[in-house]
TrEMBL record:
Entries under InterPro entries matching the protein: Chaperone_TCP-1 (IPR017998), Cpn60/GroEL/TCP-1 (IPR002423), GroEL-like_apical_dom_sf (IPR027409), GROEL-like_equatorial_sf (IPR027413), TCP-1-like_intermed_sf (IPR027410)
Molecular function per GO: ATP binding; ATP-dependent protein folding chaperone
Name of the featured protein: CCT-eta
Family: Belongs to the TCP-1 chaperonin family.
Annotated keywords: ATP-binding, Chaperone, Nucleotide-binding
Entry keyword Nucleotidyltransferase: no
Organism domain of life: Eukaryota
């Protein structure tokens, strides 16, 4: 019994027109979750199932491996910020080359934004927010919102 686990409530609920057996565990220490996937066709349902599976495995990978880095150009923006600061401190003509390299790094997130159908201006906004130490949140429509200063 210990290997299978236990639950607090077992009942039958109707979801749409399908009867489902629901197992609920009220304890917060549970490491098990169930996601009900529904779709209009089998293909849609399988696509959603693959998406959920990918998301779960990505989260598991990110939480277990400290070598994961942020995607969508966030790393490039942060490196560009660091290189730009180095360029400010560099003497003579070297600062121009260093700052142009920092500017070139920002092309990657801009292209990623364009390819995903977003406004490339989001990159300028994100870079400015990184410079001031602000954390960003992406809204469902793809725009960025400043959460807070850190």
């Amino acid at each position: 019994i210990d290997e299978i686990g236990k639950c607090d409530v077992v009942n039958v609920e109707e979801i749409g027109s399908t009867k489902c057996i629901i197992f609920k565990q009220e304890q917060e220490g549970s490491r098990v979750a169930t996601i009900v996937v529904r779709g209009s066709t089998t293909n849609v349902q399988e696509d959603v199932e693959r998406c959920v599976d990918d998301a779960v495995h990505n989260y598991r990978g990110m939480s277990r491996d400290p070598r994961f880095v942020a995607g969508a150009g966030a790393s490039e923006i942060e490196v560009a910020r660091f290189v730009d600061k180095m360029g400010e401190k560099a003497p003579g003509l070297d600062q121009y080359a260093i700052r142009k390299f920092a500017e070139a790094l920002q092309i990657i997130p801009r292209v990623l934004a364009q390819n995903s159908g977003q406004d490339p201006g989001v990159v300028r906004f994100a870079r400015g927010s990184f410079l001031y130490g602000e954390r960003l949140k992406t809204t469902p429509n793809g725009s960025c919102v400043v959460l807070s200063n850190t």
